[in-house]
Specification:
- The protein has 580 residues and is of the alpha/beta class.
- It has helices at 4-9, 12-15, 20-31, 36-43, 82-96, 105-119, 138-158, 173-184, 218-228, 250-260, 265-268, 299-306, 330-339, 356-365, 381-385, 394-404, 408-413, 417-420, 422-428, 435-457, 463-472, 477-487, 489-493, 511-526, 544-560, 566-575; strands at 55-59, 64-70, 125-131, 165-171, 189-196, 201-205, 209-217, 272-276, 278-282, 287-297, 317-325.
- The strands form two sheets. Strands 5, 6, 7, 8, 9, 10 and 11 form a seven-stranded mixed sheet that branches. Strands 1-2-3-4 form a four-stranded mixed sheet.
- Strand 6 (201-205) and strand 7 form a beta hairpin.
- The radius of gyration is 26 Å and the shape is globular.
- The N and C termini lie far apart (55 Å).
- The relative contact order is 0.08.
């Protein structure tokens, strides 16, 4: 069986990020991220003036952020240097507390965004990670206790009205081994459970699976959670969201019904679905013996019951399905997990993967060189761990298309909603959407991302290069520039573009070749990117009105300078296949 070190060392795409490649790998493992390149372009802040912030990852839709300090040792050592963990105290102060005008440009946009989101109660959890490849240690653990206290003190002082949970964590070799195992196996808890089933039950069988359906007592779920915590949810990508004191919060409602309406709990609750290795029902003893347990659906029910101060009363009953898959059929297990998590925003694109447009696009992509598209379906563990080199990840495709079609605020702020909101989805995925057009839009976004990464690595930046990197360091800068560039297509092509969906580089161009076609256009446009800054500097990429104003000014400047750039534009025009 492979190890996390083997998986990490095989990731050629992560080597260019140095020590930060390990943090990206950890991020991908823990949060099931299959497009790490876009994350890297947005989140890596490492540099001479990073104030100990190597990586700042912000997920507004899922309401969490990750601040990471990274260290990779090429030698066998007993533990990681503890001073690198204590550096996170400095990182927290600069990210959350210091005057924004004093914060270095490299991390200023990250600091501004995370502060705004915390103030608006849109960040509920802050993970502070010290990521390294050595054994966990007591010295580092003690330093991280101080880091957690520092974070809580700053939050209480600077953001009095916001309630943010802080998790300071040493992500070393031991934890990476655990996360790697979780990504490979849907069932981590492998012990035997004996569950009372006084109300009987029945069995249902399918082609390669069988299930036992019954009613169980809530206290059995509570005990399992109290003993195994989040491992009991190893097949459930949502885990347990916690219980906030709000009537609208489902987890708090579950607790309230268990405590105050116990006899009606079964009627109020949707029940749980549990993956198991084996089960055996003894009707005479009213007992269900189960080996292995991973709750696929019902994490909120289980977590809420398990977080009660006492075991729930006998009257609290829960409908339960125990599913066994023969021969560990990985594809079937993945489908069971996905289709039992319809409430999960992280898996939003999966629920478009069966519509006719996605099916057609997946077939179309087969005729393109070095391009693979999974038809809206997110990749599984293989995509996270090993990364398919030619894969166009579904979420990034959605963001690229939304940016290309003039909605950068949606592309940046509503990554999941692109797939769940019918209006957003139909705007970019319709009968006019072709694989060739997706490659065109996707490669533009990738071209800009790679431009940022290359500028950040470059020594001795010129004044112009510094200004361009300064623009690209603003959060939301990449989708905004994508939209600005497509707004100027008529200037580049010297003709009207009545239908953006017809813009492509034809049937034989790979995504990497398409990037090279875009590169001269991106270079010209980046030189004028200061025109777009007003849409980013005050509160981030939020205001469609500011976006429209900035893109209008930008496009006018492109039009005014079109003559001097005509040779570049003519070369680009030759590559755009359809005539309009």
């Amino acid at each position: 069986m492979s190890t996390w070190t083997q998986a990490y060392e095989s990731r050629e795409d992560l080597k260019s990020y140095g020590d930060n490649g390990l943090a990206l790998f950890a991020l991908a493992l823990h949060f099931r991220i299959d497009d790490i390149d876009s994350v890297a372009a947005e989140s890596i802040t490492d540099g001479h003036d990073d104030k100990k912030c190597d990586l700042v990852f912000i997920n507004e839709e899922e309401e969490f952020a990750v601040l990471a300090q990274c260290y990779y040792s090429t030698k066998d050592r007993p533990e990681a240097p503890a001073n690198k963990a204590s550096d996170l105290n400095i990182a927290l102060a600069w990210l959350l507390q210091r005057d924004l005008q004093e914060v270095p440009e490299r991390i200023r946009s990250s600091a501004q965004q995370i502060r705004t989101l915390i103030s608006q109660s849109k960040i509920k959890t802050l993970y502070v990670w010290y990521v390294h490849n050595l054994p966990l240690s007591k010295n580092v653990s003690q330093e991280l206790v101080t880091v957690q206290q520092t974070a809580n003190t700053i939050l209480q002082h600077e953001f009095k009205e916001s309630k943010v949970q802080v998790h300071a964590l040493e992500v070393g070799a031991d934890r990476l081994t655990e996360w790697y195992s979780e990504s490979l196996s849907p069932i981590l808890v492998d012990e035997v459970f004996n569950i009372k089933v006084n109300d009987g039950g029945y069995e249902v069988k399918g082609g390669n699976w069988s299930a036992f359906c019954t009613t169980i007592q809530g206290k059995d779920l509570s005990r399992a959670y109290k003993k195994h915590k989040l491992k009991i949810f190893s097949a459930n990508v949502r885990d347990y969201l916690g219980s906030r004191s709000s009537d609208s919060n489902i987890n708090n409602s579950i607790r309230n019904s268990a405590e105050n309406s116990s006899s009606e709990f079964w009627a109020f609750n949707n029940g749980v679905t549990i993956l198991v290795h084996e089960y055996e029902h003894n009707s005479k003893a009213n007992n269900l013996e189960v080996r292995g347990m991973s709750i696929v659906n019902g994490a909120q029910t289980t977590g809420a019951l398990g977080s009660l101060p006492r075991l729930p009363p006998d009257e609290v009953k829960v409908q339960a399905r125990f599913i066994k898959v023969k021969d560990g059929d990985a594809d079937l297990i993945q489908n069971i997990i996905q289709y039992n998590n319809s409430q999960n925003k992280v898996e939003a694109s999966d629920f478009r993967s069966t519509d006719k447009i996605q099916k057609r696009l997946k077939i179309e992509f087969k005729s393109f060189p070095d391009a693979e598209y999974e038809g809206g379906r997110r990749g599984g563990a293989e995509s996270v761990i090993r990364r398919k080199p030619n894969l166009l990840p579904s979420y990034t495709v959605g963001q690229a298309l939304m940016s290309f079609h003039g909605e950068p605020t949606v592309a940046y702020n509503q990554r999941s909603a692109i797939w769940t909101n019918d209006s957003h989805y139909s705007k970019i995925f319709n009968d006019s959407t072709k694989a060739s057009h997706i490659i065109c839009a996707y490669s533009l976004m990738r071209c800009i991302e790679n431009k940022k990464i290359n500028l950040a690595k470059k020594d001795g930046l010129s004044k112009n290069d510094s200004a361009q990197l300064g623009y690209l360091r603003y959060r939301g800068a990449i989708p905004l520039l994508c939209s600005a560039i497509t707004e100027c297509l008529e200037s580049f092509l010297g003709r009207t573009v009545p239908n953006l969906f017809r813009v492509s580089f034809g049937q034989n161009v790979s995504p990497s070749d398409a990037e090279r076609i875009w590169a001269p256009i991106v270079d010209i446009c980046l030189a004028l990117s200061n025109q777009l800054l007003p849409a980013l500097v005050d509160g981030g990429l939020k205001s469609p009105t500011k976006v429209r104003e900035c893109i209008s000014n930008f496009s006018q400047l492109i039009a005014a300078t079109a003559q001097m750039n005509r040779p570049v534009y003519e070369g680009f025009e030759e590559k755009v296949k359809p005539s309009f």
